[in-house]
Amino acid sequence: MPSGGWGGEPEMAFCLPLPGDTEWLSLRRVKWSFRLARLAGIDVRVHATFLLLLAWFGFAYYADGGAGAMVVGLTFIILLFVCVVLHEFGHALAARAYGIGTHDITLLPIGGVARLERIPEKPMQELVVALAGPAVNVVIAAGLYIVLGRFFEWSDLLAVDREQGSILAKLLAINILLVVFNLLPAFPMDGGRVLRALLATQMKHARATRIAASVGQIMAVLLGVLGLVGNPMLLFIAVFVFFGAQQEALYATAKENFEETRVLDIMQPLPPVFSRGTTVLAAVQMAMRDSRTSYPLVDSGLRILGLIAAEDLARALHDRASEPVDRLARDHTVTIPAQASLLEARAIMRRGLQQDYPVTNETNQLVGYLSRQDLPAGFLGAEQAGLAPVGSGR
């Protein structure tokens, strides 16, 4: 089974598949899940299908050995998923140390998902967060080894799925297997994120992601082959890793382009601009040649004095047609620098309430216009221009 992961902008999820770690993409809350508890300020949720998993295992154990076998088997499954939750808390608390919150942790049949607010931007931070999950399993395994002492045999590693043997010995063995499996360089599992973090210290983050994703997809193919001749669960993990790596590579490439694409590249031409003293009637006549929701009021140097909403112009036309538009201008207009990246522009729009944003140059002169509708189009254009095959090394 898989063990975990985490993820951010896509939002972010850290998944721990048992025995593999999935990803830490910022994902929306998993549907069909309910809150089980709240620990360290983080909601722990359980997906409805996890209960079906328990029911299926309970039936299987009961059929094999009766009520006693069912109790022992389900106890082991529950303790195993407790280890998964602790693994996810390792990721979440390590991320918290860098100021990154966690929305929640959700238990799924294939493992756990920790939804981080964002992916750590600095490679060494990502490295620490990625290693924190497996480190928890190392601590659990070490503690169990101390408790069991001479009663643990290394051959127990091969008997995890057998009925005989103590629960604690099986937990020790499964935690060791989780550490080993999660540290395989199968991006977006923990080992793949460790690889990406190390590569990112020597190259751009997007290229490091593409290389790590290529390695991850190769690992996914190998896991798929092993799944065909061995444990079918590896097939599910292989599919997840393959497409998860592809998604992460595409996202990283698009994000890189969003950072490199400037507002100057996608802004709209200047709309009709009004100067001080322009009458409402004249402004309406000018606005009729355009379909924007607001228009800038500027001084003689094309510096923004405010924005005038089209709806305010329409209302004023009935009884104030000869008055200047100056009084209709709304103060506190937020502008966007022409050299800002699309990511920076999006951040400005998230903080603001305007529908339209004047674009200004270094001397605060109006040079263009950007609406909320323009920005997604700009994101899409940058993505289409920049997406490359996974591992292309662009």
Helix and strand layout, with pairings?
Elements: E1 3-6, E2 12-17, E3 33-39, E4 42-47, H1 48-96, E5 102-108, E6 111-116, H2 123-148, H3 167-182, H4 190-200, H5 205-229, H6 233-260, H7 263-266, E7 274-275, H8 280-287, E8 294-298, E9 304-309, H9 310-319, E10 336-337, H10 342-351, E11 356-360, E12 366-371, H11 374-386
Parallel strand pairs: 4-5, 7-8, 10-11
Antiparallel strand pairs: 1-2, 2-6, 3-4, 5-6, 8-9, 11-12
Helix pairs in contact: 1-2, 1-3, 2-3, 2-4, 4-5, 5-6, 6-11, 8-9
Structural commentary:
There is one protein chain. The radius of gyration is 28 Å and the shape is elongated. The strands form 3 sheets. A 6-stranded mixed beta sheet has the order 1-2-6-5-4-3. It has a 3-stranded mixed beta sheet with strand order 7-8-9. Strands 10-11-12 form a 3-stranded mixed beta sheet. It is an alpha/beta fold and 394 residues long. It is 51% helix and 16% strand.
Number of DSSP strands?
12
Query: What share of the residues does DSSP label as strand, in percent?
Result: 15-25%
- Which regions contain 5 or more consecutive residues with pLDDT less than 50? 8-26, 382-394
Assign an overall shape: elongated
Helicity range of the residues?
A: 40-55%
Task: Tell me the number of helical segments per DSSP (H or I, 4 or more residues long).
Answer: 11
The helix-and-strand class reads alpha/beta
Give the biggest sheet: 6 strands, mixed
* First-last Cα distance: 35 Å
Looking across the biggest beta sheet, what order are the strands in? Answer: 1-2-6-5-4-3
Whole-number count of domains? 2
Mean pLDDT across residues: 82
N-to-C series of helices and strands: EEEEHEEHHHHHHEHEEHEHEEH
User: What's the gyration radius in Å?
Assistant: 28 Å
